[in-house]
Each structure stands twice: as C-alpha cells, then as structure tokens.
Design brief:
There is one protein chain. The chain is an alpha/beta fold. Among the domains are: about 1-125, Methylthiotransferase, N-terminal domain (Rossmann fold), CATH 3.40.50.12160; about 375-430, OB fold (Dihydrolipoamide Acetyltransferase, E2P). The protein contains 14 helices and 18 strands. Strand 9 (about 190-195), helix 9 and strand 10 (about 225-230) form a beta-alpha-beta unit. Helix 8 runs parallel beside helix 9, helix 9 runs parallel beside helix 10 and helix 13 runs parallel beside helix 14 (about 345-370). The longest helix has 24 residues, at about 345-370. Iron/sulfur cluster (SF4) binds next to helix 7. Iron/sulfur cluster binds near residues 156 and 163.
Length: about 425
C-alpha cells in the first residue's frame, strides 16, 4: 500500500514527516511522492503565513478527492474545525497528537488484516503516550541527508508569530539522547546531519545551550560527518556556540531570521536583539568560516515599517553581503498581537518592497556563487538526472557534478572544486577530484 507524506513549512516539519514516513516504511508500506497515487495521504501543515495555510487547504482537498487524508501540524493545531470541513475524507490530527502518528502504521497493518478499510483504521486509532521527541527516523524517504530534532517550542513571543502558540514552550531533548541518535545516524552511513528545532538557539538555553550540545556531539562523532544547523535566532547566539561553529565539521551555512534591520521595527514586533548585536554575530561567523553562506529571513510591511525603516533593511542586507534572502510579505495572523495593528503598511507597498528585496536576493546569490569559482568544496550526492549527479555543498549550494566517480551513490561525500560560474543560468558546477 502506498502512503504519501506531504510537508509544508520549516525543516522541523520535514524532520517530523521523515520520521512518520520511516515508521510506515518499517511496517511494509511504500512511501511515494505527491505526484503518485497513494492509498493514504498525510499532510503536515504550517501556520506561519496565510499562503502556507491556503496551500495546505488546496493540497488536502486534492488528496482527499482520491483517498483518506490525515491533516496534522501547526495549522491543524490552531484551526482544526476549518480543516475538518474540507472533505469527509479528512481526519484532523492536532499537533499535540502528531507524534501518535508514529504508531499508526502498526495499528493500520493490524486493522487491514482484520478487514477494516484505511479510513476506519485511522479513526479507530488512539494512543495516549507520545513525546515531541519520539521522531527518530532511521531512514529518510524525501531527503538524502539525515534530520535530527533536538528542540521544540519557543519562549519568545514575537508579535507576528503563531508558531509559539501552536507548539508551546521551549523544550530540549537531553544531550545524551541527541548524541546517541547522532551516532546511530553516523553508523547507518549518513554523511550529514541537520539539527532542527522550532528555535534551535533556545536549546537548553538556561544551562549549557546549543554550544554545549555541539561540543558533546563534536567530541563523539568521527571526522567524516558534516553537521548543519537549521536556523539560528540571533538572541541566544553566545560565545560558546560561536566557538563550536569554528569546527570544520560544522558547515559554513547559517540561516538567520533577521526580519528587519530597523531597531524600531524589531522592538515594535517584540524581537529580542538589536541590529548592532546581529552585526557582531555576522562578523564572528565570518571569522569562524571562510565566506560562509549566510541566508536571512526578512518580513516586509511589518507594522511600523516606514520608508526609512525599509531602506535601512535594504541597505543592511546589501552591505552585509548576505548570500540569499527569504522574503515574506507580512500577513497578520489571527490570535497574534499584530492581528489588529493600526499601523499596518498598505499591501501594495508591502509587495513592492518584497519585490525589491527578492531582486536584491537574486543579485546577492549570483555574486556569492561567482566568488566560489576555483574554491575547494565537499558535496553530498543527492540525485541523478539525465546522466548527471547533483548534490549539496557544505555552503548549501545545489550543484551539478562534472566527472562524478563511477561508484557515485546517493548520500556519498565527494571532494572537488567550483568551476567558473555561468551567470546565465543553470546550477553551479563542481569538478570532482579524481
Ligand atoms: S523566535 Fe519568535 S518567530 Fe521564532 S518561533 Fe519563537 S516566537 Fe515565533
């Protein structure tokens, strides 16, 4: 029987989906992609933007027209009733019960043997014991790298955010268990592990912090593994963490939710850092790594963002030479303090600003790739298309490999150097060492 796990939103959702898919494949179900016909769909939703919610509704309707569809994740947590009305084939599993899905495959297998159909099997399932850290995948169906969840929830209350409402307070997986799981992934042959959480820098932040966890991981893992961090909120990046990031196994790729480069706007939306502090962090990251790939999230049209504040943000990203920007036009989320903000920015202005930043991001990305020409790199092979291998470099560039080795396989780590970049398009090229 075919099962499709379709994921929206952040890397944490992707990590949790992989663990759910792994639990199904361990029980003999076949995991398929969204374009293949499945007997059961699981949609892991996101509530960060209204666009993500719209897409979730569209995909759930589409999948439910042909098979039972379980809807779970942050959106399912905050709007259960809305999703229920999409189709009578939809079963909503709120976020607080999402980890129960890890045990559903076993139950379904038994109920199918007993003659129940899949929908009745899903409806008759109940399991009261699940932790947010039960997601512990041994295999990954939708990615060639391993994901390891180490943190959940968030104690910040950014005024535009619904994630901390859906996910609750910050919790961390005990460091000994993180190390144990990482060692198991290394032993299973993964070359790269991405650590994920809702707010990774809030990992154990009242004690040893993310820096303390990285020290333990780096002391336990071998020299051939790569570690990557999903994203780094600026407010808990401390000396210990910055020191650990200098280890060569830590990949030169950092994703920072900057949101605005105006201190006035940051304070207005209850972010807990200022732009001068962020600049110091960026300098330290560049001291730790040679020209790291630094991506930044930015929200245009936040309440209080006038022309001056926007121009400051534009200049900041330009001057700091970010390699890429993820631009989100602000959409007020129900139940958040900014939902009824009076100092809203007109949508046309918000969208025009988003366009300018996206154009800037394209420019910055091309400039970043261009200056990699001739540099040494390591690539994890991801897939093969039209006779060529494609993979991901340590600095998070998706590249095409020239002269990949004959023994190439998904997940293999190969060495090479960047060929000159052709700005007209296509993926950056890497020449493998013989
Ligand atoms: S740091 Fe802010 S935006 Fe990120 S999850 Fe926490 S409250 Fe939401």
């Amino acid at each position: 029987m075919n099962v499709c796990v379709y994921t929206l939103g952040c890397r944490l959702n992707q990590c949790e989906s992989e663990a759910i898919a792994d639990s199904f494949s361990q029980e003999g179900f076949t995991i398929v992609g969204e374009r293949e016909q499945a007997d059961l769909y699981i949609v892991n939703t996101c509530t960060v933007t209204s666009k993500a919610e719209q897409k979730a509704r569209r995909m759930i309707r589409k999948f439910a027209s042909s098979a039972p569809t379980l809807a779970t994740g942050c959106y399912a947590q905050v709007n259960e009733e809305e999703l229920k009305t999409l189709s009578d084939q939809v079963i909503v599993v709120p976020l607080e019960k999402k980890a129960h899905l890890l045990k559903l495959a076993k139950h379904l297998k038994a109920s199918l043997v007993a003659g129940f159909d899949l929908k009745s099997g899903c409806l008759s399932f109940s399991d009261g014991t699940a932790s947010v850290f039960d997601y512990d995948a041994a295999s990954f169906s939708y990615h060639s790298r391993a994901y390891l969840k180490v943190q959940d929830g968030c104690d910040n209350e950014c005024s535009y955010c619904r994630v901390h409402i859906a996910r609750g307070k910050a919790v961390s997986l005990e460091s000994a268990t993180v190390v144990e799981r990482a060692l198991a992934l290394e032993a299973a042959g993964f070359s790269e592990i991405m650590l994920t959480g809702v707010n990774l820098t809030m990992y154990d932040h009242t004690r040893e912090g993310l820096g303390g966890l990285l020290e333990k991981l780096l002391a336990s893992l071998g020299g051939g593994i790569r570690l990557r961090l999903s994203s780094l909120e600026p407010d808990h990046i401390d000396d210990r963490l910055l020191k650990a990031l200098a280890d060569p196994r830590m990949q030169p790729h950092f994703h920072i939710p900057v949101q605005s480069a105006s201190n006035k706007v940051l304070a207005r939306v209850n972010r807990h850092y200022d732009i001068e502090g962020l600049s110091t962090i960026l300098d330290r990251l560049r001291e730790a790594k040679d020209d790291p790939f630094i991506a930044g999230d930015v929200i245009t049209g936040l309440p209080g963002e006038g022309e001056e504040e926007f121009e400051a943000t534009f200049r900041y990203f330009q001057d700091q030479k970010f390699a890429q920007m993820h631009v989100f036009p602000f959409s007020p989320r129900p139940d958040t303090p900014l939902f009824k903000a009076k100092d809203r920015v007109a949508e046309s202005v918000r969208d025009e600003r988003a366009k300018r930043l996206r154009d800037l991001s394209d420019e910055l990305f091309r400039a970043y790739v261009k200056r990699q020409s001739g540099k040494e790199t390591e690539v994890v092979l991801q897939n093969r298309k039209g006779g060529a291998w494609y993979g991901l470099t340590g600095n998070y560039l998706e590249v095409k490999l020239l002269n990949a080795p004959l023994f190439a396989r998904e997940g293999l780590l190969v060495q090479g150097h960047f060929a000159p970049y052709d700005e007209k398009g296509g993926k950056p090229l890497v020449l493998c060492h013989a």
